[in-house]
Amino acid sequence: MKLSDLSAFELSDLVRRKEVSAMEVLDSVLERVQAVDGRPGSLTNPLHPSESEDGKLVHAFITHTTERARAQAQQVDRCLALGEDPGPLAGVPFTVKDIFCVEGTPSTAASRILANFVAPYTATPVLRMEAAGAVMLGKVNLDEFTYGSSNESSAFQPSPRNPWDTSRVPGGSSGGSAAAVAACEGPLSLGTDTAGSIRQPASFCGVVGLKPTYGRVSRYGLIAFGSSLDCPGPLARNITDAALMLRTIAGPDPRDSTAAAIEVPDYLVDLEKGVRGMRIGLSPDYFQITYPDPKTGELRQEPVPAEIEQATLRAAGRLAEMGADIVEEIPMPHTRFGIPVYFVISRVEAASNLHRFDGVKYGYRISEPVGDLFEMYRKTRARGFGPQPKLRILMGMYVSAAQYSEQYYNRALRVRTLIRKDFVDVFDPGGPHRLDALLTPTTPTPAFPIGDVYGDSVLMQFADQLNVPANHAGIPGLTIPAGYDAAGLPVGVQLLGPDFSEARLLRIGRAYEMVSENDAWRERRPPVVVEFG
Amino acid sequence: MSDAITPEIFDHLVLLAALELEPQEAEYLRSELNKQLKAIHELEAIPLDPSTLVTSHGVPYTADITPHIRADEWLPYPDAEKILQQAPQTEQDYIVVPDIPHTELE
Question: N or C: at which end does chain A have fewer Cβ atoms within 10 angstroms?
Answer without folding.
Answer: N
